[in-house]
């Protein structure tokens, strides 16, 4: 799973017993050499789907941008400025190394649950990849309300979501085991490291998006195929702030 350039077992252990912010500061220089980075295949598929369904956008926001894997996608989809927001200074430093020369890209250190007032109403597209496991279900309303406030009327919050894994899948047991270990770790160790794989179910997410004011639809990401029952393995969620046309 990890390349020779990735973190050692000791480095991962140190990260696991740190806070989320400190853990990612430590992991940042090697993060892109781990399986935790969003795969290019997923980024490319989302970009293609957004371009086909929405066309181009004005300004773009990457919520929990990490090392900036999605910033290139946003610069191609958006005509205006692109902003990446992340809590980890270390991850932002890596994003700066990769994208700092782009004059349309700004990087902001902030908690996604409390986005800065300066971002309010400034974006036509917001995206997020691979970060939702860091938010407990009770924190989703603040997260979604903040993104809603950052969008202009007609703006879209887009993110991919996978179909539920069947209990017969070995991966189901792997993620269930990981979540169980993390719950034990957080019960006996401080500071907590919030990272769970099964706390973002589509039913609850849809309800929280709607409660924040979004009009929600999904598009199948056909590149990833369909399950035996015919449902897509991955969907692209398009949560739109009503009240205006895309700029």
Automatic annotation (TrEMBL):
Q: Which Gene3D superfamilies match?
A: Vaccinia Virus protein VP39 (3.40.50.150)
Q: Does the keyword Methyltransferase apply?
A: yes
- Keyword vocabulary terms for this entry: Methyltransferase, Transferase
Any one GO biological process: antibiotic biosynthetic process
Q: Please name the CDD domains in this protein's record.
A: AdoMet_MTases
For the keyword Signal, the answer is: no
Instruction: Give GO MF terms, alphabetically.
Output: methyltransferase activity
Q: Can you give the residue ranges of the Methyltransferase domain?
A: 61-155
- Check the record and name the Pfam families matching this protein: Methyltransf_25
Q: Name the domain of life.
A: Bacteria
What name is this protein filed under? SAM-dependent methyltransferase
Q: Which organism is it from?
A: Streptomyces globosus
Organism phylogeny: Bacteria, Bacillati, Actinomycetota, Actinomycetes, Kitasatosporales
């Amino acid at each position: 799973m990890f390349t020779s350039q990735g973190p050692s077992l000791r480095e991962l252990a140190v990260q696991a017993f740190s806070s989320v912010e400190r853990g990612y500061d430590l992991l940042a220089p090697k993060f892109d050499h781990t399986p935790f980075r969003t795969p290019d295949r997923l980024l490319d598929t989302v970009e293609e789907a957004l371009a086909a369904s929405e066309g181009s956008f004005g300004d773009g926001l990457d919520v929990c941008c990490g090392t900036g894997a999605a910033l290139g996608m946003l610069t191609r989809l958006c005509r205006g400025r692109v902003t990446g927001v992340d809590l980890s200074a270390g991850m932002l430093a890596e994003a700066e190394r990769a994208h700092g020369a782009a004059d349309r890209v700004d990087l902001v250190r902030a908690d996604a649950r409390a986005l800065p007032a300066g971002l309010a109403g400034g974006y036509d597209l917001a995206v997020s990849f691979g970060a939702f496991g860091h938010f407990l279900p009770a924190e989703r309303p603040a997260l979604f309300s903040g993104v809603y406030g950052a969008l202009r009327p007609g703006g879209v919050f887009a993110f991919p979501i996978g179909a539920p894994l069947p209990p017969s899948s070995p991966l189901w047991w792997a993620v269930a085991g990981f979540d169980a270990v993390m719950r034990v770790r957080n019960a006996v160790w401080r500071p907590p490291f919030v990272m769970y794989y099964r706390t973002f179910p589509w039913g609850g997410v849809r309800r929280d998006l709607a409660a924040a004011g979004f009009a929600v639809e999904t598009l199948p990401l056909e590149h990833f195929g369909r399950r035996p029952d015919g449902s897509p393995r991955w969907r692209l969620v398009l949560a739109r702030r009503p009240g205006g046309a895309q700029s």
